[in-house]
Every structure is written in C-alpha cells, then in structure tokens.
Amino acid sequence: MVTKEKKSFTKLLSSPRPEAVEMQSFLLQYLTEVQELNLSYYWDLRLPELFAYQLLKQQDAAYKGRLVLATVEALRSLSNNNETLYQLNALLKQLLRLTLSISSEGFLQLLKLYGISEQAKEQEVETALNKFPVLLTLSQVEKLAAKEGISEALLAYLKQLRLHGVSSSDNRLGNLRAKIQDILRASGVAELPVVIFPADDLFGVTLNEFVQGLHGSDAAGSWLRLLQLCQNVSGAQPTGKFQKAAAAAVAAVGAENVAAQYEVWLNGLTKLPVQELNRTQHYGSYTYTHTEWHFLSTPNQEVVKGLLWTSGLLPSAALPHSIAELAAKCYRKIPGKGPLAPGLGNACLWALAQRGLAGVMHLSRLHSIVKQSNTKNLIGHYLETASLALGMTPAELEDMAVPDCGLANGRALHEFGDYRAVLQLRAGKVEVQWSKADKSMKAVPAALKRTHAEELRALKLAQAQAQHTYTAQRDRLDRSYIIDRRITWPRFQRYYLQHGLMSELTRPLIWRFHRPDGTHHDALWLDNAWRTAQKETLPEPNEADTVQLWHPVLSTTDEVLAWRNLLDSIQLRQPFKQAYREVYLLTPPEERTRTYSNRMAAHVLRQHQFSALARGRGWNYRLMGNYDKGYESDSTTLELPAHSLEAQFWVSEVNADGAWNEAGIWNYVSTDQVRFVNDHGPVPLPEVPPLVFSEVMRDVDLFVGVASVGNDPLWRDNGGLVQYRDYWQNYSFGELGEVAKTRKAVLERLVPRMQLGKVSQINGNFLEVKGKLRTYKIHLGSGNILMTPNDQYLCIVPDRSAKIVTATGVFLPFEGDAILSIILSKAMLLMADDQIADETIVRQIRRR
Q1: Cα–Cα distances in Å, from 657 out to 394, 622, 654, 660, 723?
Q2: Does residue 376 contact residue 367 with C-beta atoms inside 8 Å?
Q3: How many other C-beta atoms lie within 10 A of the C-beta of residue 210?
Q4: Residue 708 contacts residue 628 (beta carbons within 8 Å)
Q5: Distance CA 572, CA 813 (A)
C-alpha cells in the first residue's frame, strides 16, 4: 500500500467508532495480504485464496454485518481510482453475498453512507450505484424483509427511493426500482410497481404512454409486473429463473392479450426510423465531426430483449414474422459502426429458435440474408440443434418448415363480401389482384379499409410472408448445388412438387431422377407430367428413386442446348439460372498448376462490394484495413462440409495513396489464386468434384464480374487509381468471362426477336447498335460503351432499378442478371439517340 494512503486509512480506523476499532485488525491484515500478492490488475484478486478471508468465513453473521459498515466508512474516505478503493470494494461485494446480521436501522444507515438520503437527487443515486454495491445491499434487505420484516422508517425510505429515474437512461435505476418492489412485496405491502422507461426514443415514449393508460384498470398490476420483469433483463440468454417468472407474469395478464400487444410493439419496432445524426466536437484548435446512428437506447434494447424472451409463451402465428423482420433490421450494417443492434438481433434468433418449425422457416431465411459470419454460424447452430432433436438433417428440417402461406399451386383466394382478392405468385413476385363481380380493380377498395381493416392487415402479412418465403427458398435451391443433395421421391413429392408455394419453384426447374439400378433420367414438369428435353413423357418415379437438382456440368453440350431450346420454345422462365448456368471446366493451365487456378487473378475489385457479394453467397471474408493486423487472412473462404473441403479465393489490398476510407479500410483489393484445401493441405484440382469446382469458380467469376472497377462507367472519369487505368480499359472492353459468354448466348437468341434486332447485331464481344447519330458498341461483359468511328468512350450511368423485362415485354429465360438488363436498357436508349434528352449524354455523342 502507498505509505500516504496507509497512514490515512490507519487514522480512519483509529476513530472511536466501535465498528472501526473492532475491525481495524482484520482490515489491515486483509489489505496487507492483498498488497503482498503484487497483482498486476485489481480484477485478478481472488478472495477465497486469502488467509484473511478464510478467517472471516469462521465469524458469525453479526461480525460480518459490523464489518460491512466499517468497510463502507473506509471506502468513503478514499479518492476515486485509488488502489485501496478497489480492494475494499471487492471485499464489500463478497461480504454482501454472505449471510449477514444487520438491522433495519443498520441498513438505513448503510444506504445513507452510500450517499443516498431521503431527498437524494437522481444524479446522487447514479453516483452511489457507480461507487457502491447498492443492488447487492438491497438483496440483503429483501432477505431481512422475508425473514422478519423491516421497520416503517426503512419502508418509507425505500418507497421514496423507487421514484428515481423518471428521465434517466441508466437501466440500473430500473433494476433498483424492481428490487425495491420485491422488498415491498416481501414485506406484505400491496402497491403497484413503479415502471418508467427512458424516453430517449419513440419506443420508450410509447411504453410510458401504455403504462399511463393502465392506471385504474384491473390488469394494471399484472402488466406492470410483466414490464418490470422485461425491464430488468441482462445477459445473452434468459435464465431458468427468468423463464419461470415470465410464465407466471404472462399467465397473469393472459397470453392472448400479451400476444396482441406484442404484435403492435414489435411491428412498430420494425418501422422505427434509424436516425443519422451529425455531431461536431471541439478539441482545442481542432474540430471533429462524426456521424451517430440512433435506433433504441441501451436500456430500451434490454426491454425489447425481455419481450422477445417471453414471446415464446404466446400463441401467435404472426409474431415469428415480426421477430424475423426485427432481426433483419438489427443486423443491418451501419457505415463505420457495423450491425445496428447485434445483441438485440441475437435475442430475436433465440426467440425464433424456441418456436419450432415456424421459427425454423424464418431462421432459414435469415441465414441466407444475414452477412455477418458469426451470426450465420449462430443461426446454423440453432438449425442443427433443432434438426438433431428431431433426428434429421438441417436440410430436411428446412423442407418441413417451409409454409405454404395458404397457397395452392401458387394461388390463394380471399373473399371480403362482394370483393375478391387473389394472392398469386407470378414471375417471382407475389401480387394481389382485386375484383368485384368479375370486374378487375387496380387497388384495395376504399370501403374495405373501413370495414375489414384487420382482414386486410392479415392479407398484407400473408403477401409479405409469401414473398419472403419464395425468395429465401429460391436462394436456398440455388445454393444447394454445393451440398450435392439427393432427396427421396416421397419427400420430394410432399415438400416440393405438391407444396402450395414450393411447387412454383419446383416445376420450372430441371431435375435428375436416380434409379436404384444406377441409371438416371433428366426431366421437367410440363403439362402435368415429367418430360425430357424432347418432350417425351417419363414413367412415374417410384419410392426408391432419389431426386437431384440438375446442373449443366452433369450433361453433354448437346443435352444442355436441347434444354435451352425447349425453354425458349415454350417461353418458360426459370427462377434462377439453370439451363443457362455457366459451366467451369478445368483448363490446361490449371491442369499444369495442379493445386491452384489463376483464371480469376489480377483483377481490381471494390472491396466493400466484393465483401457483400461474398458473404451473400455464403463465403467468409473480413475487410482488410490500413492498420496493424487489419485482417487475419488474405483470402475469402467457403466451407464445403459435404466434400470435406474448403475453397479459398486469395486477395490482397491495393496499397495506393489515399486508397482507404475514413475507417482505414482499403477501397480496393486485387485478386489472386483459387485453391481447394482439406485437413492435409492443398487438393489437386482434378480431384475436386466437377460440380463443386464449377460452382466455386462461378461464385468467384460473379465477384469479379460485379465488383470489378471495370464495370464502373465513372471510375476512370472520377480519377480511379492512375496505375490501374490500363486494367479498367482492358476489362471494360476485353475478353469475355463465362458469365458474359452466357449473356452473349442469350442475346444471340433474344435480340433478333426484338425491335432492337432491326438496328443491332452481336459482333465479337459487343452488341453493336446503329443509332440515328452514331453507332455504338456495348461490351457484353462490363456493359460499357464505345462509339464509332474512333472508339470514343460513352459514359452512361444505368438506372439499377429499371425493370427491362416488364418495360419491354421481352422474354428472358432466367432471373438475376442485372448487367443483361443494363445492356438491353442502353441499347434501347441508343437506337433512338436523336430523342435522348439527357444533356450529359447528348454532349458526349455530339463531341467528335
């Protein structure tokens, strides 16, 4: 102990107070023993290992009670950040966990020693909570109240104390009020709990208004006890004690009443705006401006956790959807911050995991849209746990959990008196068509908004759920190639072909049927039968057959072309690229390098866009930063557990002057090798299953094709990186990758059927369009444009929201190729270049 502090402390203990004199010997022995340990950090102190503490345990409860008062008096004499303060605080906290004998007068004296008088201000209470273990002390008071009761003076003091925290955002004041309420209850005092929420956000204001509206109602006490329970949660998951108390609280209010109110609150939270606030601070001669994002205050986030943890007790079919929507919002990425509210998002996942198959369906969707690797792993853990409990694989569990959303063959009829609403899946979109007496209507009838508000809300929810389910299951099927899954025919019939919603995904896709004898047949559901690419009818599969999603790499070129011809002839649009899916086979250079591919090397990618794409496709990636240990790995990886492999795509930062953002994250990365590894190291590429190799390389090609700076029409004009301008030029107008080659094949079929075909043709790597003023060459890879005769660059920034297919009525055989739509959009614009109104485009065209 520092000599000066030791003298001061010894002087304090030499006071005539009986407690100080009696405890002087013990406290000095304790502090001396702690000092001799020479600990680096005060939190390394382990009291049970001290000899002084072992002696203390042998003393009676009255001695320990007197020691508490003496320790607090000693603490009051010490300054903040003093080493002795931490050592005495550790002792005090441990004492308050033991069996003590302190009277009501002693506790009243102790609380006042903490600096909390009867008329203490809010700030004084918060200071006491910072310096002393107030809540532990109140736990001891609760034991005294339950055992023998407490004095009227102490009761009056506590009643006054629980009124603190009306405007504070310190959630410890809520814990303090709840603890005092427990003491009053143990003392037989029948008073309603005092429940106040921080009004730092709209949700807190809403809760306070709800509490005020409870005054005088029969349900007030039950609701207040439930809200108080939610207000005082802590930790990542609820304890058994909390769950038991929650069950009683929900039962007291009534599960249906709680469910109805929770639906309102959780729906409101999904719509609660996230505020972007600019803050400016001054430090001497420097001014610093930063952005803060506000959604919920920390105490109110804890309240929502409590609501989520009790939601599993409620019989509501709508709640899982609201919880899933809130989870998606919580994991939304905020610039410079990360996820908006990850702790609250994790509470949403826990709540969904408690709701059986209904929760599994939403967890499956979240697994496909959440980008954070640790969150994906958590969702995967919940899915695996649920599947193990039912004795099936996670994929089989997800099959079972997909709701049909009331659809039959992608369609559901809802009647509202004389009005009819048809909910229908069409071209990947869930639409509602209104009619009355067979006369179609453009929107919801105004009369129904007044007379059928609840039914309309349920219809809107059904539409949203159907859309979310369709999108999630489409993406799940698209990603299922890498797990090489085969489904038994009975399961396939039940959960795919005959399912009200999944059938709309199943029927436009090609499937491979495996017979027990080792033979197989590829077929498409067409005209109520399974048919080959030549429209020949196949016999009905039997129970011993298994079904696999067909992939072009499994067939010959002629077979693939036959399927494409069939889709084009019947104008069947697939939910994702299948017949037109790119195939990546080993090349001679890859056969020579054996363990790695350089096919996608030497590209420059926008790092943030690359990161989002990679995570969206299930890859693991951490952003690289311009600081010490800014990243742990120089590759993005994809786990392939079905094949005991890991795919690696190597990248490195582009280190150029100013090539990082305000957070120190590199703007660009350059690409390198693609490898496959297992527990023993790199795997020779010929040993990688062809389908797995093709799908991994397709992902990497997607990353390059979308995130490359060569796709950015403004990159060169805005400066870019000088040393990479040649790369931009070469990529923008160079050789085509596999995705671009597929795009070319589609355009070769498509353009002649359009009005565009009269003034355009495919020429090498370009779609050439003859306008009224000039001729244009649109690159089939990047979508960038050159103008003849001097190959002058034309910069047109595309409207990414344009719906080319809808606008032009042109049939496209698959969804999801944005650059294809951009190329068509630019071509349609340029064929009538004399009618373009945008001055920035016109000036470029007329400049020679």
Answers
A1: 48, 22, 10, 8, 11
A2: yes
A3: 16
A4: no
A5: 6
Cα end-to-end span (Å), the chain: 85
Residues in the chain: 848
Rounded to two decimals, the pTM is 0.71
Find out whether 210 and 270 touch, Cβ atoms under 8 Å.
no
Pairing of strands 487-488, 286-294: unpaired
DSSP state of 541: P
In the predicted model, what is the mean pLDDT of residues 460-470?
90
Closest C-alpha among 193, 97, 93, 89 to residue 140: 97
Mean pLDDT taken over the chain: 85
Region of 719 (left: φ > 0; alpha: ψ -120 to 50; beta: rest) is: left
Place of tokens 């000599």: 3
pLDDT for 705 equals 84
Question: Which SS3 state, helix, strand or coil, does residue 761 take?
Answer: strand
> Residue 816: exposed, middle, or buried by beta-carbon count in 10 A (0-12, 13-18, 19+)?
middle
In the predicted model, is pLDDT for residue 5 greater than 50?
A: no
- Rounded Cα gap, residues 693 and 685, in angstroms: 8
Q: What is the pLDDT of residue 16?
A: 46
- The CA–CA distances, whole Å, from 733 to 605, 710, 740, 791 equal 16, 9, 12, 11
Contacts of 369 (CB under 8 A, 6+ apart): 328, 472, 616
Longest dimension (CA), the chain: 108
Q: Which helix (H) or strand (E) holds 651?
A: strand 645-653
CA distance 746 to 744: 5
DSSP assignment string, 388-444: HHHTS-HHHHHHHH---TT-BTTEEEEEETTEEEEEEEETTEEEEEEEETTEEESS-
Say if residues 705 and 739 touch (Cβ distance below 8 Å).
yes
The answer on pLDDT for 292 being more than 70 is: yes
Please say whether the beta carbons of 672 and 651 come within 8 A: yes
Residue pLDDT, tens place only, 701-732: 989 888 888 777 666 655 566 666 677 777 77
